[in-house]
Amino acid sequence: ALFFGCTDSSLEIKDFSVENKSTSSPSKDYNEERNAYFGDLHVHTMYSFDAYVFGTTASPDDAYRFAKGDTIKHALGFDMKLREPLDFYGVTDHGFYLGMIRAWADTSTEVSKTPGVESFHNMNRPENLTIESSAERANSFRGAIDAIVNPYPWYHPKILQAYLSNHVSLALRSFDDEIHKSAWADIARSANEHNDPGNFTTFIAYEYTTSTDVENGNLHRNVIFNSSSAPERPFSRIDSLNPEDLWSWMDQLRDKGIDSIAMPHNSNGSNGQMFEMETFDGSALGLDYAETRMRNEPIVEMTQVKGTSDTHPLLSPNDEFADFGIYDSRIGSFPRTYSFPAGGYVRDAFIKGMVLEYSAQGNPFKFGLIGASDSHTGAGAYSEEDYWSKIGIIDGTPEGRGSVPLSELQVDQLPQGGAGVSVTETDQGTYANTGFETWGASGLAGVWAEENTRDSIFSAMRRKETFATTGNRMKVRFFGGFETNQLDLNDENLVKAAYANSSTMGGEILADGDKVPSFLVWAQRDKHGAPLQRVQIIKGSINQFDSSPTEVIYDVACSNGLEVNPETNRCPDNGARVDIETCAFSKDVGSAELKATWTDPDFDPNERAFYYVRVLENPTCRWSTWDAIKRGLAPRPDIHDTIQERAWSSPIWFVPTGSNELAPAQSMQSDLAEYVE
């Protein structure tokens, strides 16, 4: 167990409030039936080590200005601007060495004189913000760990101070606590200053960047505080690699009145470890673990630039839409290393959670879903047509992200050896393979909340009334219950009636004899996107006798008045097409909204089950195709040239009668023990 010292600054609460900020409620758009709000709670600025190294000098203030509709500059000098402002935003710079790389670069600081950080000096001077600096920056990024893991000798007073204050970072030569806390204070100040209840919501937040200590499986989380106060410093991987220690820290802050939510991301790059069936130290999961995890991690980020973690073709071979946003490398691995899918995707985790529940171990994976960008430029690139990727200088051009061929000079400048870079030769030229070519213009978090305020949006996340999109702004409603099929789809009070007699996304349906649940789905297109093609309900269940899993996908609403084929559970092809030479797509095919009620035809009242919605747009051009045609080229032949933008709701779970009783195996053991006695 982690020991927190009495002087631990990560547990000291500091009020970062800004004077004269209104917090009046209800706001002008208050709605008991809840509004859809869109935002991004995973954004990095100059205070993150891997953002500053790659040229990002945007501040948290810049990031919030961007989210509210202003134009800010990319490291390479071009403008970044949203098509329309967002409703909420959160700067989540890495708690790990927060602000320190920027301090290394500033030669006026004492910490910049630390041996080993010389390559960072003045690295973001204006004349060095060029594509030609990419190789130097990549080498500095990989060499940063050597500069970080450089402790004082055992007899140095800093070692004792680090031990007594439970602040391990103090034992490292290249760390300055005052600079670290000053960066955190600036992040918190900026969030509070830009928070505008009723119009634009911000959260004090950061990223807890950890990994498994053996095979480098990604275990990153973003921590979001529901307060204008926050700890004096963030808890980071230097404090502990174990996410369970993060939860203990969050619980202790909660006891002090500071509530927070941690949101795992990029489970696809965790090598199957994000949703493991054992604790961090290899012990069996139990009810305490499940309760602690759900209290601290009620939602998961399941789509972003570095891929989508819904499911994988190897996990869902009968899902023809599973091959979407697949980035199957471990996050941050050099050289790139395969990430095994099982245990790394949310649909698989939903199944695993029910199996654990079946075994009376609780369900630690009963989470809701959101999307985010993970932008390291301060500005999320959510549009396929206007895409600047994620990191900064090295992926800020089509050549750098592998969508157009490299020049001869760029080929000569490619890193040699095991740096995770290879090339693909085609008739059009030589393309770089860095992993960026598999990334996407994703994603956004959608929430259903009464008003655009911290409390309301945070409450929506805690109750899991959330949905994820691939970057566009489709809206999706999802309700389930035993009388939901009796709702009138044309009733102007449909949503009010659904709230009155059904559970919404993130909730449960409790068994009632042999009654069969039905569901309401209601999806609306993004006004800037393509028309909707179909709405699906994805169901997972486990057998009541041996917990073997079943996955079924049902199309429940088709565009253009088409009907679902009852034998295949699929909509017919609606005929939507894309012109790859111009990226024009069918605008007269598809629907502006799709609405339906659906009753599960294969329902078994004795089986645990989950249901969630997936909404699919008509096909459109992928960002890599846009890059190519803007250069007068054909799309790169070995990657997808189109995508289908999509949205996913949080699930609704069906809970059978007696599900809280002992599992069958335990029940037999109890009977046997009673017989022996």
What can you tell me about this protein's structure?
This protein has 677 residues and is of the alpha+beta class. The chain is built from 14 helices and 31 strands. The strands form nine sheets. Strands 2, 5, 6, 16, 17, 20, 22, 23, 27, 30 and 31 form an eleven-stranded mixed β-sheet that branches. A four-stranded antiparallel β-sheet has the order 19-18-21-26, covered by helices on one side. The protein is globular and about 70 Å long. It starts with 12 loop residues before the first strand and ends with a helix.
Write a concise synopsis of the structure shown.
This protein has 677 residues and is an alpha+beta fold. Helix content is 21%, strand content 21%.
The biggest sheet, with number of strands, parallel, antiparallel or mixed sense and barrel status, is: 11 strands, mixed
**Helicity range of the residues?**
10-25%
- Looking at how many chains there are and whether they match, the oligomeric state comes to single chain
Number of helical stretches of at least 4 residues: 14
Please compute the radius of gyration using only Cα atoms. Answer: 25 Å
Mean pLDDT: 93
Overall geometry: globular
Q: Approximately how much beta-strand content do the residues carry?
A: 15-25%
Distance between the termini: 38 Å
Poorly predicted regions: 1-6, 661-677
